[in-house]
Amino acid sequence: MGVQLVDVSKSFKGSHHKDFLAVEQINLEISGGEFFSLLGPSGCGKTTTLRMIAGFELPTKGEIYIEGQPMGKRPPFHRPVNTVFQNYALFPHLTVAENIAFGLEMDKLPRTQIRTLITEVLEMVKLAGYEKRYPRQLSGGQQQRVALARSLVKKPKVLLLDEPLGALDLKLRKQMQLELKYMQQQVGITFIYVTHDQEEALTMSDRIGVMNKGKILQVGTPVEIYEEPSSHFVADFIGETNILTGQVVKQLEEELIVLVDNQLLVTVPYDQKLSINQQVNLIIRPEKATLYPASYDDPSSWLGTVEEVVYIGTDTRYLVRLTEQNVITIRQQNIHRSSLEHYQTGEQVKVKVSADSIRLLLD
Ligand code: ADP
Ligand code: MG
């Protein structure tokens, strides 16, 4: 069943009576039990979209369906959803158990049942035995687990999470990412997760919707989004990317030959008709290029000059100039001790990228 957004737009009254379109014609189909992330830069409309699903904002246009039901103007407490915010919003004067019990008491559940539910849910978020603590006696990560427990205990059909790990330090955030994903799989609730952190979205999601300027640009699995970005923006926003701009010089049956900077010929697989001289962008991920010594004799490799070498532990990052206008970043994994600092600044090298690792974009 899940959640559907059909042509959903939201405009806010701006200054000088000009409307500001924060969300523009979003169409989404999120399946029941799916972990779906909305990913995009700050200000792109993620929170506004989530708030409309929750019912804190109403769409200016369009309709939102949850579990097949149109939500119309239903207020938040009449929707089968629950929201977890970045700033936990726990009651400071209530214990962990009292914080979690709060919503259940409002629903007038019997005391014994409330106690059982609290024990269960605290076990799930790995806080068994913390019932009597106050929020100030907990770490940030533990407070966020309580906030999560408070939402999960209500057994919503859909849980909305707005940058819930944003306040945690990197190490704890990475640990919580995996725990959250595991918990989501256990409870089978649909999660709609908002983040501006591409690595977080790739780690946790079944599918990701990439947003920019109020629009959804691409929806896909982490692999699809990373390997087959459909636009310049998505390619650039997700992971590190090299973009080489060139002109089509020749079209063969299933290949294009592209000339970059009047100097470098690149062959890419492509089966749609393009016109000669048309400008295209070639997307190359840094880890998909390999460096060889200048003597390497492969006609499909490119000659370049190393301009910068940066050792970053797991990898070494090389900046290699290919043409007057174009440098490419290449990441080589440091698997063997002997591979460290293999190439020096100023050295000529060959760069090899297999044709099927190059993605061609028209925008
Ligand atoms: P994100 O969560 O992706 O950072 P938001 O959804 O919070 O983005 O905001 C999207 C845009 O809508 C921003 O430009 C923001 O300033 C604007 N906006 C959000 N809420 C309101 C509001 N209540 N009134 C006016 N503008 C708003
Ligand atoms: Mg936001």
Structural commentary:
This protein folds into two domains: 3-237, P-loop containing nucleotide triphosphate hydrolases (Rossmann fold, 3-Layer(aba) Sandwich); 242-361, OB fold (Dihydrolipoamide Acetyltransferase, E2P) (Beta Barrel). It has a six-stranded mixed sheet, sandwiched between helices. Strands 13-12-11-14-20 form a five-stranded antiparallel sheet. The chain has helices at 46-54, 96-106, 111-124, 140-152, 170-187, 198-204, 222-227, 232-237, and strands at 3-13, 19-30, 35-39, 61-66, 69-70, 81-84, 158-162, 190-195, 207-212, 215-220, 242-251, 255-260, 264-269, 279-284, 289-293, 302-311, 315-321, 327-333, 348-353, 359-361. Helix 2 runs parallel beside helix 4 (140-152) and helix 3 (111-124) crosses helix 4 (140-152). It is α+β, with helices and mostly antiparallel strands. The mean pLDDT is 93. Helix content is 23%, strand content 36%. Magnesium ion (MG) binds next to helix 1. Adenosine-5'-diphosphate binds at residues 12, 20, 22, 40, 42-48.
